[in-house]
Amino acid sequence: MDKQESKQILDKLSYLRDVDIFQDLDHHEIAALSTHAPMQRVPEGTVFFSPEQTAEVLFMLKEGRVRLYHLSAEGKALTTAVLEPGTIFGEMAMLGQRLHQSYAEALDPCLLCLMSREDVKSMLLSDPRIATRIAEILGQRLISAEQRLSDFAFKNVPQRLASLLLQLARPPKTRLFRIASGAREVRFTHEALAEMVGTYRETATKILNEFRAQGLIDIKRGCVVLTDEAGIRSLSVGNER
User: Fold this and answer.
1) Residues β-bridged to residue 42
2) How confident is the model at residue 12 (pLDDT cuts 50, 70, 90)?
């Protein structure tokens, strides 16, 4: 085995260790799994799953972010989820995972691991530790989906957008020769945010500008900085400022 092959194996083992459902496995168990999980790099902007695909496959996301979305008959996109590294998703009926009529798009350069139905059945569901982790992840995803459905039913667009900003906010990125402000950031375009709350980009931009005028956020290129999280949280539940 040459150095390149050794590095690929080590990278793969490191990748699998970071997947949430494998947290309870030891090194030898991870190594055994790695022989049944081919890896695939996907460039940013690539739609790597579409409704036309019928094969059952489970994706494990190591690097990057993935957007799941639907398209209306008029071609309008509705984002149903944005997935972060360490999670699982795919078309796998036995896990209750469905991408029916969904598209999966790489928002960043992504590293994915793929597993077939047979491997999932024989290697994942047969291990109670992994099965328990899968149940936990799917349960949390169901809670998140129910929250978004509730938001759509009972909140107006500004409230939904405020709630979404809180859900997506992450610590600021470290920048060379600059000290991070500490305020959390949402690194999505206005168009992406609009699709997630079911409105048009122009409407989302107008609302974001109103939030900025109220001192709730700051807007930078491809990024929304949450400068007043308490105010955004109050607005998200319907309390006027």
Assistant:
1) 110
2) low
Rounded (10°) angle between helices 190-197 and 157-168: 120
pTM of the model: 0.71
| Contact assessment for residue 127 and residue 32, using Cβ atoms and an 8 Å cutoff | no
The whole domain housing 223 covers: 155-236
Spatial strand order in the sheet of 185-186: 185-186, 223-226, 217-220
The total number of structural domains that make up the chain: 2
Six-digit token string for 139? 């349960």
One domain for residues 64 and 104 = yes
Mean pLDDT rounded to a whole number for the chain: 82
Please say if the pLDDT value at position 190 is more than 60.
yes
Closest to 117 in 3D by CA, of 88, 86, 93, 89: 93
**pLDDT above 60: residue 154:** yes
